[in-house]
Amino acid sequence: MRIYKASDYHDMSRKAANIISAQVIMKADCVLGLATGSTPIGIYKQLIEWYRKGDLDFGEVKTVNLDEYKGLSPNNVQSYHYFMKTNLFEHINIPMDNTYLPNGLEENVEFECQRFNGIIDMLGGIDMQLLGLGHNGHIGFNEPDEAFEKGTHCVALTQSTIEANSRLFAKDEIIPKYAYTMGIRSIMLAKKILLVVSGIDKADILKDALTGPVTPAVPASILQMHNDLTLVADEAALSKININELTK
Ligand code: GLP
Fold first, then answer.
1. Which residue out of 41, 43, 138 has the highest number of ligand 1 atoms within 8 Å of its CB and is therefore the one to mutate?
2. pLDDT score of 223
3. Are strands 153-156 and 192-197 parallel, antiparallel or unpaired?
4. 235 three-state secondary structure
5. Greatest Cα-to-Cα distance within the chain, rounded to the nearest angstrom
6. In this predicted structure, what is the pLDDT of residue 94?
7. CA 172, chain centre distance (Å)
8. Whether the predicted model's global pTM rises above the 0.70 cut
9. Among 59, 76, 221, 233, which one has the highest count of C-beta atoms within 10 angstroms of its own C-beta?
10. DSSP bridge partners of 6
11. For position 244, what pLDDT does the model report?
């Protein structure tokens, strides 16, 4: 595991964006696994800036996102489709046909899970998967459970996740209780994983995920088993971890 300690959120965003940029430069037609949430927003802003300066070309890049709320249309401002469009896709030269997310409107769960697994296979797997970390250790929407879910599946979100995400919804909006998410197997098959974490509120769960037992009760703990994991986190998020111990 490689750990890059950033001074703050801005520094974390720049360091992580540098790593993604290197991937895009080294393999112009790479497959990027992308994430939503507050954490990657600064990374996307930085990538947009470098694209505008002419340093990055997304013309051949393909992207596949981790998750989408079940029941939300791509035009719903709370959907992850909308998030990706407004925070990244519409500001860079990626062809929209090269971007893939689960279809939140598909009622047939089995059909949608198979379709999305098929897309990941069709793309030939993921070169670099960007991941944020949920407060309960979730990655994508793989919530704490008794077993790791392998492929794409539909999850009932935990109360803590619903509450954490409620900050992004207006008072009268219905917060989705289910989501489609890429499974742990697909995430672990990514050639490289880039985990980004910021803030003191994530310090305990980051410590559990990286130094505790590998258990589906803390889904991110499985990342300890990946052979090309890079963590970029700010000082606050790393404050409970002894980095020297961990990278020994
Ligand atoms: C969300 C997303 C995750 C994300 C996590 C952390 O619910 N489904 O993919 O990584 O929670 O979000 P944030 O970065 O806003 O803390």
1. 138
2. 98
3. unpaired
4. helix
5. 50
6. 98
7. 27
8. yes
9. 233
10. 234
11. 85
The total number of structural domains in the chain stands at: 1
Among candidates 39, 9, 7, 26, which has minimal Cα distance to 194? 39
* Integer Cα distance of 140 and 179 in angstroms: 10
Cα 180 to Cα 227: distance, rounded to the nearest angstrom: 26
Give me the pLDDT at residue 248, please. Answer: 67
| Alpha carbons 85 and 91: distance in angstroms, whole number | 8
- ∠ CA 71-76-80 to the nearest 5 degrees? 75
Q: What is the SS3 assignment for 219?
A: helix
**Structure tokens that stand for 139 in this block:** 């990655």
Please report the pLDDT score of residue 160 as a whole number.
86
Between the CA of residue 21 and those of 43, 89, 177, 224, what are the distances in Å? 10, 15, 34, 24
pLDDT digits (tens, 9 = 90+) for 28-54: 999 999 999 999 999 999 999 999 999
Ligand 1 binding pocket includes 219 (Cβ within 6 Å):
no
121 catalytically annotated: no
CATH code at 57? 3.40.50.1360
pLDDT of residue 171: 78
Q: Where are the alpha helices (DSSP H) in 179-226?
A: 184-188, 203-211
Q: Which residues of the chain have pLDDT under 70?
A: 248
Amino acid at 149: E
H/E stretch holding 155: strand 153-156
Residue 134 alpha carbon to ligand 1 centre in Å: 5
- Residue 160 tokens read as 């803590």
Domain limits for position 177: 2-246
